[in-house]
């Protein structure tokens, strides 16, 4: 049985009680709530009209009345309540709610706790789940930055931020139109329209050195594309470059922290990976910092640049030592 | 292609089983529910009926099997209302907002779909839930670990698991076989861990899922694992991280307008020219001198 058809069956079973609770609802609104097109919803309603109780006479079938763009259930054939939640549905909701309840500063934890109790009561699942989520992020966000950013999102106001871009090792000041703050992978990000880049960007809050609330409303242009965070904050794009590195055991952590693929195990516990990066200076700093624990296999000019910088650093060290 | 005839038959089957207090035999059902009239033979009917029952059960519909009396020689089927129906629920506006935020938390297809399934049913129970209500902070949780599903299933079934796990610096071929009584799967600072009793070491341990090599195998009887009632899984994971060492001061030279990543954590205390390059002397505190050395070396030759 395909996923699409079991999703449809779930929707059909939920539709009658849903409509029963909302007499005269707009078909369009119901479609939106069920995440389908109004056309699909009408098809579903036509199908339900053919269903009913044994006997299947006029008085046994589900009866719906349409009026302009609205719909009302006049006979529910005994389907007046939704199906109970499956174990996975209850888990997905309760694990998420318990995480919210345990994390101050995200939302009203007292309201979350009440919601947890009511849902546990309705679904009859009170035992602790096997999945637990800690939403607390890593430390490092300045409290004043956190406060100012939250206020800008709440009040829908523009912000001026001084921001450290790690890939380019540069600090810039820019005006952004905040949309929301995302808490993801242990970091807080400001999701905002950046007027300088003229694009939607994620700004890691621990890299915001200063945030000033502006006296103008946030205005995200129509063409702004929402960020897709399904793959995490780092998104692979066609303009990124790649380098092949050989990592010794002590440097294997690189493959866990940064986007790598084509992993190959080599003798002596070494690992070869292809690393994706958006700024060359970033990969230069990474490999220099790894000292002898990483070797650039390709591109060759990258390896040469790093070697040249390391040599200059050694000469400089001699001069510093002489000066002491 | 999604067959409307099949969907219609399944809805009718649910309504029929819900409306009957008696167990209905397959043959009775064949005679009652209109969709089965098309089955050309008994064999074809039973195949259809088996698939239909499986689909209903997959959706979580409690199709009960039983006999109405000891004299019945064939089993029948029914759905009892208290087992089928979601309990009464009514949420205040702030509670509904929290549920909306919880539904949007998942960035993994399986859980996201399940949460939306739950949302659908809550709405069908009359609860008003608006997903477009903004929140100041939106948490997002991803599950990109191949080991996740098997471990979660083992936790739910209370089954011991074995898997190969490597330490951070260990190459995959060196991963060691572990036998663990799993208590739970925990997300901590964006990473997933298995928490449980490590049978080889006889102690509570955390295993990062991304360092599990190959497949997780459930071994032994379901129900064999008992998680201690006082185990706080999140605290176990948080406590397994090394405590942050005390900060140590350092003085660096940084070339003018370079190494901004370091400068934003440092205080400039003077200027100095080195080898003809102007720069600043800065004071900075490091938590770990060895990782600080790597960090500084990354800025070579503009920082020393």
Automatic annotation (TrEMBL), chain A:
One Pfam short name: WYL
Domain WYL: 147-211
Every WCX domain range: 241-314
Keywords for this protein: Proteasome
Domain PafC HTH, chain residue ranges per copy: 7-120
Any single GO CC term annotated in Swiss-Prot or TrEMBL for this entry: proteasome complex
Protein name in UniProt: Proteasome accessory factor C
Species annotation: Actinoalloteichus caeruleus DSM 43889
Automatic annotation (TrEMBL), chain B:
Pfam hit, one: WYL
InterPro entries assigned: CBASS_pafABC_assoc_protein, WYL_dom
Location of the WYL domain: 147-214
Protein name as catalogued: Transcriptional regulator
């Amino acid at each position: 049985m395909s996923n699409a058809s079991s999703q449809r069956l779930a929707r059909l079973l939920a539709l009658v009680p849903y409509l029963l609770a909302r007499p005269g609802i707009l078909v369009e609104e119901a479609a939106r709530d069920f995440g389908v097109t109004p056309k699909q919803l009408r098809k579903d309603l036509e199908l339900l009209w053919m269903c009913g109780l044994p006997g299947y006479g006029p008085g046994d079938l589900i009866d719906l009345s349409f009026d302009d763009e609205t719909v009302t259930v006049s006979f529910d054939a005994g389907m007046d309540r939704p199906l109970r939640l499956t174990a996975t549905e209850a888990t997905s909701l309760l694990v998420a709610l318990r995480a919210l309840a345990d994390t101050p500063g995200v939302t009203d934890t007292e309201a979350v706790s009440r919601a947890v109790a009511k849902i546990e009561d309705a679904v009859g699942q009170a035992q602790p789940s096997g999945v637990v989520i800690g939403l607390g992020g890593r430390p490092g966000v300045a409290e004043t930055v956190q406060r100012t950013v939250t206020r800008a999102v709440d009040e829908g106001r523009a912000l001026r931020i001084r921001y450290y871009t790690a890939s380019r090792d540069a600090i810039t000041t820019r005006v952004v139109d905040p949309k929301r703050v995302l808490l993801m992978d242990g970091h807080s990000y400001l999701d905002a329209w950046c007027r300088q880049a003229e694009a939607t960007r994620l700004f890691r809050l621990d890299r915001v050195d200063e945030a000033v609330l502006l006296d103008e409303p946030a205005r995200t242009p129509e063409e702004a594309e929402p960020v897709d965070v399904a793959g995490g904050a780092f998104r692979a794009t066609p303009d990124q470059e790649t380098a092949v590195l050989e990592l010794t055991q002590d440097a294997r952590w690189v493959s866990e922290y940064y986007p790598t693929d084509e992993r190959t195990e080599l003798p002596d516990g070494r690992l070869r990976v292809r690393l994706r990066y958006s700024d060359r200076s970033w990969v230069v700093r990474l490999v220099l910092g790894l000292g002898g624990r990483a070797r650039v296999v390709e591109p060759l000019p990258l390896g040469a640049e790093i070697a040249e910088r390391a040599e200059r650093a050694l000469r400089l060290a001699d001069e510093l030592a002489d000066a002491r | 292609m999604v067959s409307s005839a099949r969907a219609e038959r399944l809805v009718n089957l649910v309504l029929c089983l819900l409306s009957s207090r008696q167990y209905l035999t397959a043959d009775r059902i064949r005679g009652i529910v209109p969709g089965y009239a098309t089955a050309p033979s008994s064999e074809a009917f039973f195949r259809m009926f088996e698939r239909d029952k499986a689909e209903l059960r997959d959706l979580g519909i409690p199709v009960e099997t039983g006999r109405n009396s000891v004299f019945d020689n064939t089993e029948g089927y029914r759905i009892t209302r208290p087992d089928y129906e979601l309990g009464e629920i009514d949420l205040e506006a702030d509670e509904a907002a929290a549920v909306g935020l919880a539904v949007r938390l998942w960035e993994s297809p399986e859980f996201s779909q399940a949460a939306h399934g739950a949302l659908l049913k809550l709405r069908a129970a009359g609860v008003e839930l608006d997903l477009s209500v903004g929140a100041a902070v939106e948490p997002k949780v991803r599950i990109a670990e191949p080991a996740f599903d098997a471990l979660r299933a083992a936790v739910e079934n209370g089954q011991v698991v074995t898997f190969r796990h490597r330490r951070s610096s260990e190459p995959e071929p060196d991963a060691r076989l572990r036998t663990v009584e799993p208590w739970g799967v925990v997300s901590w600072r964006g990473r997933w861990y298995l928490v449980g009793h490590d049978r080889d070491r006889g102690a509570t341990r955390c295993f990062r899922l991304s360092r599990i090599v190959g497949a997780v195998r459930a071994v032994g009887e379901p129900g064999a694992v008992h998680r201690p009632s006082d185990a706080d899984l999140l605290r176990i994971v948080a406590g397994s991280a090394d405590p942050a060492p005390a900060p140590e001061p350092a003085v660096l030279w940084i070339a003018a307008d370079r190494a901004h990543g370091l400068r934003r954590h440092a205080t400039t205390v003077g200027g100095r020219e080195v080898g003809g390059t102007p720069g600043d002397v800065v004071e900075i505190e490091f938590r770990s001198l060895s990782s600080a050395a790597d960090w500084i070396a990354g800025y070579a030759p503009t920082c020393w």
